[in-house]
Design goal:
Oligomer: single chain
Strand content: 35-45%
Structural class: alpha+beta
Strand order of the largest sheet: 2-1-6-5-4-3
Number of helices: 3
Length: about 140
Amino acid sequence: MEKKYPLPPFNEETAKQKIQMAEDAWNSQDPQKVSMAYTIDSEWRNRSQFVNGREEIRSFLSEKWKKEKSYKLKKEYWSHTDNRIAVRFEYEYQNEAGDWFRAYGNENWEFNENGLMQKRYASINDLPILESERKL
């Protein structure tokens, strides 16, 4: 049985550990590595797109990082309960045309008893920025 520590129920310290682990994984831009934090049948809503399962997650992330160059993400703790964590995030990227963007959003995460994320709901807004306005 796969386990991804720390396991729920979370306290503030373990919730923040889980968030940092997610930030580090996403900043690696390695779809395989990122996908292993999710259940085999994980459910996502990412903007208006629905993604289901690790295979779709890997495919989604591969396409994402082909289009979003110089990707850099920062996640922040918002709140938690026993097996749920809410985060605020921002990330910056450059599109294929060389234009810069900052994306802001919130995510709600739900974990199974083995510490794998079974649900991820992301609301995201993109803002065009100048390269000189980058913060990350």
